[in-house]
Amino acid sequence: MSRSAHPAGPRHADVLPEGHYSAPADDLNALDPKVWARTVGRDADGVVTVGGITVTQLAEEYGTPAYILDEADFRERARAWRTAFGADADVFYAGKAFLSRAVVRWLHEEGLNLDVCSGGELATALSAGMPAERIAFHGNNKSPEEIERAVRAGVGRIVLDSFQEIVRVAHVAESLGQRQRVQIRITVGVEAHTHEFIATAHEDQKFGIPLAGGQAAEAVRRALKLDGLEVIGIHSHIGSQIFDMSGFEVAAHRVVGLLKDIRDEHGVELPEIDLGGGLGIAYTSDDDPREPHEIAKALTEIVTRECEAARLATPRISVEPGRAIVGPTAFTLYEVGTIKPLDGLRTYVSVDGGMSDNIRTALYDAEYSVALVSRTSNAEPMLVRVVGKHCESGDIVVKDAFLPGDLAPGDLVAVPATGAYCRSMASNYNHVLRPPVVSVRDGAARVVVRRETEEDLLRLDVG
Ligand SMILES: *Cc1c(COP(=O)(O)O)cnc(C)c1O
To answer: Is residue 452 located within the same domain as residue 338?
Structure first.
C-alpha cells in the first residue's frame, strides 16, 4: 500500500476552527486506559493488541469494520458490579446496550441478572440458558404475545409501565393460573444526563407512570387488588450517561416517599426498589466515571437513609447498568479509505463503516475519540472528522479528533468505548452489512455475532 503524501490539515491552535475538542494529546500513540478496554496495549512494533491479539491479525481474519470485544474486561466489569452490590442486592445487565448469547452466558456465569425489553431479547436470553427467574421484562408497549411468552417462561419480574399493562399482565397470569411478580415503573420528575439533573413536578416522557397527581399511587392501588399480580416493588430509571449521583438522591427520596404512602394506605411494605441504570462511562479522556463500588456505596446509603427517615425496613435494591458494563469493553476497528483535507477547516477521514454501525454521534451528538492502531506515528497531529461511507452528510463517527498527519488509506483506526448502543442500534442503511462482533481473550478470538452477508439481505427481500 502506498503512503502518498497528503497536504496536512490545520495544525496550530491559532488556526483551528471552532468545535468541542481539546488540544491534541502530547502523544497521539498513547492509549488512555480510561477509554480503552483493559487488555488493550501496543506490541513492540507499535501495533495495538487486545486480548493478546494484534488488530492487524483481527482485520485480516475477520475484516473491517468489526466490533472487537474484550471478554476478560467484560467479565471483570460485570463481576465488579456484582461484588460491589453484594448478596443483598441484584444487578440486572440492561440487554439493550448489547445482547448476544455469548454475553448472556458470561453474565450468567458472573452472577448477574438480565433486563430484556422485547420478545427478541427474551428469546436470546432464554436460548443462551439464562434462568427465567433472573430475567426482568421491560418496555412501554409490550405486545400481548410478548407478555404471554414472558409469563409462561416464568420471568422473575415484569416491569409494568402503564395502566393498561397492569390489567393485561394480570389477565394473562390469571388465565395461565399464575401469579406474576411485577414492579411498577414510575417517573419521579427527575431527568439526569451527565453532570446535570433536572427535578420537575411532572415528567413529559413516554416511560413510566407519573408520581405527580397521584397516578403512581393509583397504579399501585389497582395492581394490589389483582390476583394475577404480586407487586414486589417500585422501579425508577432517571436517565443515561450520568456521573452526578444527586439525581439518584432525589429519585430515591421520591420512591421511598411512595413506599411510605403505600405502607400507610395498604399496610404493606413493598420489598424491592429498582433504581435503574444510566451510569456514565468515559467516551473521551475528559470523562471521569465512578467505580461500581463507589456507586453501590452511594446508592445503598441514600436508600438506607431515606428509609430510616420514613421508618421503613430497607428494601432490596436492584440496579440495571448496561453501558457501564459493556460500553468500555469494545472498540470498532475500521480501515481508512479516503482522506480529504479541507483548507482552513479540517481533514475528513472516511472509514469503511459509519452511521450504520454507530448511530450515536448522528443521533445525539455523542463524543468519541479515535486512534491510529495499525502502527505508531510521530507525525504532527492533524484535526480530523471521522466519517462513514453512507449517503448522508450527518454520517459522522467522530466529530473532532486528532490523528497523525501522515495518516494514509489502508491504515487501521479504532474508535474506543463502542460496546454499548452501537451494534444494538446498528442498521442496514444503504444496504451496508452489519459488522461482526469478535470477542478476544487470552490470545484467542472468536466470532460471537457474525458479519451480515448479502445473502442475509436478499433472504429477507422475498422479491
Ligand atoms: C436503558 C435502560 C437501562 C440501561 O441504561 P444504561 O445507560 O445503559 O446503563 C436500565 N434500565 C432501564 C429501564 C433502561 O431503559
So the answer is: yes
pLDDT at 15: 56
Q: Which atom of ligand 1 lies closest to the CA of 276?
A: 11
Query: C-alpha grid cell for residue 359?
Result: 448511530
Query: Are 229 and 268 part of one and the same domain?
Result: yes
Residues 347 and 214 in one domain: no
Are residue 295 and residue 409 in the same domain, yes or no?
Answer: no
**Cα–Cα nearest to 377, from 65, 34, 21, 48:** 48
Whether the per-residue pLDDT at 431 is higher than 60: the answer is yes
In the reported structure, the alpha carbon of residue 219 is separated from the centroid of ligand 1 by a whole-number distance in angstroms of 22
Q: Give the separation between CA 418 and CA 329, rounded to whole angstroms.
A: 8
CA 324 / ligand 1 centre spacing (Å): 10
Q: Indicate if 391 belongs to the active site.
A: yes
- Whether 279 lines ligand 1, by a CB cut-off of 6 Å, is yes
Mutate to test the pocket of ligand 1, among 92, 96, 114, 326 (most ligand atoms within 8 A of CB): 96
Index of the ligand 1 atom closest to the CA of residue 97: 8
- Choose one of 286, 321, 356: the last residue of a domain: 321
Going edge to edge, which strands form the sheet with 41-42?
41-42, 48-50, 53-54
pLDDT in tens, 191-243: 888 777 887 767 788 999 999 999 999 999 999 999 999 999 999 999 999 99
Tell whether the model's pLDDT for residue 449 goes beyond 80.
Answer: yes
The atom of ligand 1 lying closest to the CA of 240 is: 7
Domain count along the chain: 2
- Residue 324 CB–ligand 1 contact under 6 Å: yes
Name the pTM for this structure.
0.95
Residue 3 has pLDDT above 80, yes or no: no
Bridge partners of residue 272, in order along the sequence: 233, 316
Residue 265 lies in a domain: yes
Please give the distance, rounded to the nearest whole angstrom, from the Cα atom of residue 322 to the centre of ligand 1: 6
What pLDDT is stored for residue 10 in this prediction?
44
What's the pLDDT score for residue 8? 44
Residue 25 domain-assigned (yes or no): no
Is the shortest distance between the CB of 40 and ligand 1 below 6 Å?
Answer: no
Q: Give the residue numbers spanning the domain of 413.
A: 41-70+328-460
Smallest CA-to-CA distance from 412 within 74, 72, 73, 68 is with 68
Indicate the residue among 297, 321, 345 that finishes a domain.
321
Mean pLDDT computed over every residue of the chain: 94
Closest CA to 321 of 288, 352, 299: 299
